[in-house]
């Protein structure tokens, strides 16, 4: 996803994730996140415009499950996704994670 298309600033992060798509369950790492999307560092194949389910292992050791749409693919590197929030608590949890990362990164 190009910077010019982003509506929210992304913060760098490195957290374990699992994602579920057409190729099954994959383990990967979250590379960056914003309140609207993220980049998943994975060598597994993701399809552009596919819906994926992402589980993020939070610093609290809890899993946050989110749904999203793949918006960019870099084969062998990873993919960008736009979150498709299904509940308000998901949006709030992502906001809190972004804030947590930004204050602990300074």
The tally of strands reads 6
Order of helices and strands: EEEEEEH
Low-confidence stretches: none
The rounded Rg comes to 13 Å
Based on secondary structure, the structural category is: alpha+beta
Question: What oligomeric state best describes the polypeptide chains here?
Answer: single chain
The largest pleated sheet is described as: 6 strands, antiparallel, barrel
Shape: globular
Q: What is the strand arrangement across the widest sheet?
A: 1-2-3-6-5-4
What share of the residues lie within helices?
A: 10-25%
The share of residues in extended strands comes to: over 45%
- Overall pLDDT metric: 91
For the termini, the CA-CA separation is 25 Å
Key terms:
106 residues; alpha+beta; 6-stranded antiparallel β-barrel
Describe the structure in your own words.
- By secondary structure, this protein is of the alpha+beta class.
- The protein has one helix and six strands, in the order E-E-E-E-E-E-H.
- It has a six-stranded antiparallel β-barrel.
- Strand 1 and strand 2 form a beta hairpin.
- The longest helix is centred in the C-terminal third of the chain and has 17 residues.
- The two termini are about 25 Å apart.
């Amino acid at each position: 996803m190009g910077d010019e298309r982003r509506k929210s600033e992304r913060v760098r992060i490195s957290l374990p994730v699992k994602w579920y798509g057409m190729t099954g369950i994959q383990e990967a790492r979250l590379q960056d996140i914003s309140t609207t999307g993220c980049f998943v560092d994975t060598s597994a194949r993701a399809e552009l415009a596919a819906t994926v389910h992402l589980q993020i292992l939070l610093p609290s050791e809890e899993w946050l499950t989110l749904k999203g749409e793949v918006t960019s693919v870099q084969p062998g590197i990873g993919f960008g996704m736009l979150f498709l929030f299904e509940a308000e608590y998901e949006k709030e949890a992502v906001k809190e994670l972004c804030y947590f990362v930004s204050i602990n990164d300074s």
